[in-house]
Sequence to fold (190 residues):
Amino acid sequence: MADVPGMGLIVLVDEQEKRQLSIPCDSASVWQLNMRMQSEKPIEGLLPEVLMSVIHASNAGSTPKIDLIIKDIQDGVFQCEYWFDGQHFYKDADGTTKTRGTPLVFCSGKIRASDAVLLSLISDTPIRVNDDLWFRQSSPYMPNAGGVALPISSMSLPMLEKSLSKAIAEERYELAGILRDEIRHRKSKS
Fold:
């Protein structure tokens, strides 16, 4: 991958440690994730943790089931969705917490892949990846490799342009042609 300032890479590995999925992200996301993964004590007072505690409190002190799924990739951007499944709780006149009705989805929507990874880390929730996407975009997991394979379809436009310049400078014209075609395709769609 071309070195692009302000960009980072999140690598998700399957449970069997056989395959990995590389997700480009901004440097702020890398900083947020590193802060939580390298801290010896729990992070408190930052917005993601505060929001998680609000969700926990609004669900009568229990964390709702959170479902995170990476569904597709379009123009180098992973498409993710989330669902929070909870029970509708309320307090009756004497202050007793009770439930009303059946469990329901009280929140769902789209989320950036890097934010889904952060939410996964904070809520201790696994991330699922659509099977077809996993097999199209993942690469063999090699923990001691010096680099990471990154499919062209998951590269941002600035990454593609930087990689094109590098391929031309290194006289790798077949790769340069592939990169040029992907850049043209994306620019024609916008």
Remarks:
- Residues 72 and 133 are 6 Å apart (CA to CA).
